[in-house]
Amino acid sequence: MTAARMDAVDITPERLAAEVAPVLGSALIGFDVDGVLAPIVEKAHDAALSPGVLDELERLAMRARVVIVSGRSIGDLDRFAFPPTLEVVGSHGLERRGMPPVELSDDERYTFEQLELLATRAVDAAGDGAWLEYKPASVVIHVREADRDTADRAIDAVANLAGMIDGAHVKHGHMVCELLTRTGSKGDAISELRESGQPVVFLGDDVTDESVFEAMVDGDLGVRVGPGDTAAAYRLADPDAVVEFLHRL
């Protein structure tokens, strides 16, 4: 096992499985969903787990602590039918399966209403293909299907305006912009979940996963799935390679 570093090394599923095997019984092994366990698709609600991945995760959970950490809400993650042997964390760490739902304060609800208005205007400005997703503490602008230049201008404008609202936070991802009344990060979620001295293995593909990689310590292992700048130690090619990695564990 190696600590995270700035120059991610391409690795095969077989080699990665060999790296992880020695700590399998003691590690927390975490996965993002979209782009890792499920291929990226144009419409987020059309996403489906890679064939065979659910069986592999359930098999892995018999030998290791497995945690799903996603930007999706818990309600949205429920449709993937992750078995109860897996821990499931949603909304970038703000929600956990089996825990009480997020409740906003009066101030947060007021901020949410302001952000909802901004997000609605941003979708109108981004044009055809843009749409909104609602989470317990945020509203997300999806622009993957919109014209890129038009969408970029709309996102830049809404991010600037949201930054002027007290209590508001902005989180950027792959062709999405999330406006939040309460902030959280996958890195914080993993730090809270890990037990003292427990090594962490995490596979992610998005800029929001970098908070996990950047918080890693000696003995942890970060894996970026797909292209992009990263603080992860290693890089797997795509979700198919993730399935192969799981199969070889």
Commentary on this structure:
The protein has 249 residues and is an alpha/beta fold. It has two domains: 9-100 and 184-248, Rossmann fold, CATH 3.40.50; 106-180, Trehalose-6-phosphate phosphatase related protein, domain 2 (Alpha-Beta Plaits). The chain has eight helices and twelve strands. It has an eight-stranded mixed β-sheet. The chain has a four-stranded antiparallel β-sheet with strand order 6-7-9-8, with helices on one face. Strand 2, helix 2 (53-60) and strand 3 form a beta-alpha-beta unit. Helix 1 packs across helix 8. The longest helix is centred in the middle third of the chain and has 21 residues, at 106-126. It is globular, with a radius of gyration of 18 Å. The model is unreliable at 1-5 (pLDDT under 50).
In short:
By secondary structure, the chain is an alpha/beta fold. It has eight helices and twelve strands.
Which features does this protein show?
12 strands; alpha/beta; Rossmann fold; four-stranded antiparallel sheet; 2 domains; 249 residues; disordered N terminus; Alpha-Beta Plaits; eight-stranded mixed sheet
